[in-house]
Amino acid sequence: MHKIFAVILMCLATPSLCFAESKVPLEVVHSGKDRAGQLFVAELKEIMRSHSARPVTDRQRPRIVVLVATADGDSQLRGSSSAISISILYDAPRMPGEGAFLKSVAQSCSRENAAICARNAAADIEYEVSLLRRNWPALWASL
What we know:
Layout: H1 2-13, H2 15-18, E1 24-31, H3 35-51, E2 53-55, E3 63-72, E4 81-91, E5 100-110, H4 114-135, H5 137-142
Helix pairs in contact: 1-4, 3-4
């Protein structure tokens, strides 16, 4: 358990070490109109763009797809917090459906903590991509 936390902390402290060789083609797809969710996605895109990802929308190239679904967490306090679901996929033109599922994460996030939640999600994404690199080198090479 301590090793996992050490890897996550290393990625948060020095994200460039996690993907030192190249930037990974990544597409973030968001569904949801809640304010906290929109802040979360904006922060996540900025973190991924600055550290490890090359934004793409070209569906004819292999890429990592991050599907983010958000909704208001409390209907009486609209906009104060969001329920967030993240699915991380590897997708390529020849793969059936929407690609290969890597991981799913769910969390709740307030507007004030959107940046922290995004950093946590970015660490999850980077960890799953590192597992893809280690366990499926042929898929990694296609990126």
